[in-house]
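New to this. Comment on this protein:
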Amino acid sequence: MSKPLLDRFLSRAVTKGRLGVVFADGRAATFGTATEGFAEIVIRFTDDHVPRDILLDPRLGAAEAFIDGRLLIEEGDVMDLVGLLRANNPWDRGGDLGPPSRWKRLANRAAFTAEQVNSRVGSRRNVAHHYDIGNDLYALMLDAEHWQYSCAYWPEGVTTLAEAQGAKLRHIAKKLHLSPGQDVLDIGCGWGGMAIHLAKHHDVRVTGITLSEEQAALARGRVHEAGVADKVTILLQDYRDIAASGRRFDRIVSVGMFEHVGRAQFATFFQACATMLTEDGVMLLHTIGRFGGPGTTDAFTRKYIFPGGYIPALSETLAASETVRLIAADIETLRLHYARTIRAWYANCMAHKDRIIALYDERFFRMWTFYLAGAATVFENGGMGNYQIQYIRTQRALPITRDYLLQR
């Protein structure tokens, strides 16, 4: 029964471009029609269970079949395959790749709800799952200059990943409206790129915090090499503990960390930020966000990539920050910037395929590239983007026009 049902599913899912499928019994079918700008892909199933697994949960079923080597891509690559499916069903035109079965949806929602507690212990474990897999992988994937594992900024004329990440750091620094000698807290500081940039170019003192031991160790080394060890301190510490200590900061910046907080902790996060920010302070939150309303994290992402994580809708983020009277002074929606960033990471991974497989194995490489392909294409044709929200505690903390953002 699963084969004819999959035929029907793919007939609806692929109308532009061509998807050829070779089933385990040798039967072949082609879906869609050749269309300029849409890929032509051929895949093969190695066993009769793959169609059933895909029908039960299209995202997770296809992902695990690919990771396990049961779904083989014989023409094209995984970016082409996922891109073809998403391009045929763009979110802004009402499309979707196809929801899991009713039973799978209920199971996923229950598991997602349980994981959203995100206590201190859970937060550290969840961060380690993704960021403590080894700095060697990120060295092969990220830009070598800034080590930024978050959405870059691609103004006109910028063509390289390093240039785009540098542009992102400068863009955020303008929104922080810095003055020399200020104290800055970088929540989720990663490998120290933001902290180094702010200390070097704006003469501020930066405290960077992370829950990843691998990140903290490398960040400290990079801070020393950059010659800003007198201005930057990297701590292996939870933001909740910093808030409890009573420390206050003139500026707070958090890039790509809020997605790991968990929906149940949104109010806690903003309460901590409001507590740590001085009366005339400024905060810049850079986060992935949903274009639509609240949702749940899909099973593949929860299981393999970001356990405990959740991509918030803008409405959820603002609702949580409003309760502690943080004023959203400026909101910018970054569209397509992350898609271009992730495609650059994907290209780096493909260029270093043999080295990544040597570090881990082929199964890991398939999992990682599926993750990147899904992420890039959801920012191109799905319902995800990035938000930069600038917060203040008092209306007079910033100039009343945005002209200062245009200054070099």
